[in-house]
Design brief:
The chain is an alpha/beta fold. Helices cover about 40% and strands about 15% of the residues. The strands form 3 sheets. It has an 8-stranded parallel sheet with strand order 14-12-10-9-8-7-6-15. Strands 3-2-1-4-5 form a 5-stranded antiparallel sheet.
């Protein structure tokens, strides 16, 4: 089961496939598959990643059918909760109605929403975002796996736990180890999309990375690169080798703050790279760190608006978690409510995009995942780094390092089902 229900390819037109899931139609790019009309296929992020033998697909579809329609009902009922909220004062209610009618909100309106701390207003905001998500994406959701393959990093970012001047145990996974972790995630755990993440580590030459991507692509999976600021040439080579998505946050839209937090780096270079990657045809997951020291309230709005301007296919904003033995270790942690507001406002600003619940937000609060999914988010990530390396990838300190991917998959599946979400591709 899990992570992508197959659908039947019913039409191909201009490289775009129409896929039928129990009568519901979604569209996806053909990708590398040589799928034909009538085939059963799996898509991720709006790209076909693999063909599924008919017998296997029909078995899966059969097993899912009843649940599929049941889940839709659960999701719809939760989204309809919005109607129950009446006790919210005029201006806030007016703005929420405007958002609900899909009208674009002004900067001042966004500011007002992000400023609220009132419980009823927050409920209305989260429910409105959830309702927009449900109307726009139905109950589709995606779950990606992430392999953290090296914690060596050339950079010395003030916020980051793997900055090069921090004294931690370092590791690099070999090509074989990375490919075998991916193989396990795809064949045993059924992932259809994998993020390959590391510090900025030039030990992995273009050749090495291309060889890894080429082998993992063969498994029929969408590959996300999360390797930081590498040359355009590197990314182009990896696109040609078969990677089709990137996860590269701009971290903050505030230029001064960016330069302070990322010594010797320029915001415009990072943005230039993100724009280049979008143009090349990568699906782009980008965003920022929420709760960085020195931010002002306008920065949060600017961050969300910049994510949209960059054409993010997926919004990925992390909750900044202060890390011991880094310059920002004493900074106050952002609250769950603030991150939920950012989640909901992102959904309102960008109805079509995917909104990810970041793993750092999940670390911040046990109920974060569920609450974010009910405030406009529709994507999750599960760590599939081999257990021996997990505890060493210390971008920030996590509580769950001993937790096995299999257990997390069960937790996530149970949660998604309890909220009525189904793992079918969101389409394009
Ligand atoms: N080196 C790559 C990818 C690894 S870092 C890059 O620069 O893109 C992945 C993400 O971890 C970063 O984009 C940053 O937003 C996030 N991160 C770093 N330190 C963090 C912290 N202390 N708390 C939460 N997220 C953090």
């Amino acid at each position: 089961m899990c992570y992508a229900i197959p659908g039947k390819l019913i039409k191909i037109e201009n490289n775009v496939a129409t896929i039928d899931y129990y009568g519901e139609k979604k569209r996806a790019l053909i990708g590398f598959t040589n799928a034909k009309e009538g085939d059963y296929v799996c898509a991720q992020g709006g790209i076909l990643v693999t063909r599924i033998p008919e017998k296997e697909a029909l078995e899966t579809l059969d097993a899912w059918e009843e649940l599929f329609f049941e889940l839709k009902k659960i999701d719809k009922n939760l989204a309809d909760k919005r109607r129950d909220i009446k006790s919210v004062p005029g201006e806030f209610l007016r703005i929420m109605e405007k958002a609900n009618r899909r009208l674009e909100l002004t900067r001042d309106e966004l500011k007002l929403i992000l400023g609220t701390r009132d419980k009823d207003e927050l409920n209305l905001l989260f429910n409105t975002a959830n309702s927009i998500r449900q109307r726009e994406h139905d109950n589709s959701s995606c779950v990606h796996g992430i392999i953290e393959f090296s914690n060596y990093c050339d950079r010395n970012c003030l916020y980051c736990g793997i900055r090069n001047s921090r004294d931690i145990d370092r590791y690099r996974m070999s090509e074989e180890e990375i490919v075998s972790a991916a193989d396990y995630a795809v064949k045993k755990l059924n992932f259809k999309a994998l993020v390959l993440q590391s510090g900025e580590d030039p030990w992995y030459s273009d050749e090495k990375l291309a060889a890894i991507v080429t082998r993992i692509k063969e498994m029929g999976v969408l590959i996300f690169l999360s390797i930081g600021e590498r040359d355009q040439r590197t990314y182009k080579r990896l696109f040609d080798a078969g990677a089709r998505a990137v996860l590269l946050r701009f971290e903050t839209s505030n230029e001064k703050l960016f330069e302070k937090l990322r010594p010797a780096r320029k915001l415009e270079d990072r943005l230039g790279l993100i724009r280049y990657l979008k143009e090349l045809g990568f699906l782009v997951a980008t965003g920022f760190l929420a709760g960085l020291p020195g931010e002002i309230s306008d920065d949060v709005i600017n961050n969300i608006i910049l994510t949209k301007e960059l054409g993010a296919d997926m919004y990925s904003f992390g909750a900044f978690i202060p890390v011991e033995n880094t310059p920002l270790e004493r900074h106050e942690l952002i609250s769950k409510e603030e991150v939920l507001k950012i989640t909901a406002v992102s959904r309102i600003v960008d109805k079509k995009a995917n909104v990810l619940v970041s793993t750092s937000f999940e670390t911040l609060d046990k109920s974060a995942r569920k609450e974010a999914l009910l405030a406009g988010a529709n994507s999750l990530m599960i760590n599939v780094t081999p257990p021996s390396y997990r505890a060493l990838y210390r971008i920030y300190d996590r509580r769950d390092d001993a937790y096995k991917a299999e257990n997390e998959i069960k937790d996530v599946t149970d949660l998604l089902f309890s909220l009525g979400r189904a793992p079918i591709d969101l389409g394009i």
